[in-house]
Amino acid sequence: MTAPATLWRPDVVARVQALQLRARQTVAGLGVGLRRSIHVGQAVEFADYKPYTPGDNLRDLDWRVLGRRDRLVVRRYRAETEMGATLLVDASGDLGSTPEKWDTAVGIAATVAWLLYLENEPVGIELVGGEGISVRSLPPRRGRAHLARIFGLLGALRPSGRAGLAEAFRRVGARARPRGLVVLITDFMEPPSEWALALDAVVRRRADVRALHIYDARETGLVYPHPLRLYSPEGGDDQILDPEAMRDAVSEEARRFFGEVRDEVRRRRGVHVLVEARGSMVEAMGSFLSGREGGVT
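-> structure tokens emitted (297 positions)
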């Protein structure tokens, strides 16, 4: 895949090339059957009947019509309106609190976009928070040029500010096509009480919601040898603490928080996958594709 590199700064071009390579390598690491397990817009609806002719699939025979009218007919179907997938990518300052978290978030977004492109599925993107870009939303489309635009945005995007998940969920819910795929790539670092009800706007579209919850085990487990001064890139007072003294309490709070997010997603029939920033991208993508909840809580 190529893109109009002359429109970008050299550092952005380098990041886009790295994202392309990472996406290709991750998808190559997935089994063929698993790669083909994600299909958007494959729902069909009944259209009409036609007389049976030899070679038609016997599973499509309508035996009730045969019983009533003593003739063989086959049900015909048509594909419903094209569904499409939307990637909601959190580019808030908290997600950039460690380089590993940010690299994982954009790497997953690029991999999902690449996989959907390979499967000829329309894919769009919604970016919340962040800086370095002028376009924040692209509707689901197919094609190499569209994919290049998505990679270009991901390559130029830098984390900053606040995501505002509640408003983002309402916005995606208003724009998403019915029964499409909505992929949430975020660290969910906003109280669930602020965004949980807003997620209903996505669910009302009968969307397949899959949440990839990014975290860094060094942060949640306080894996640091010396006292720290902690701060939030999104504001608030600095905190000084001793990692050894606070490790158990912080780890327990992280587990509680992960469980609360998971439960809110589950209540809306979504899939919640915990993704450790230093873990395997292939394993994370495998959980995402299979609809199997992953990670540790």
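The two ends are 38 Å apart (CA to CA).
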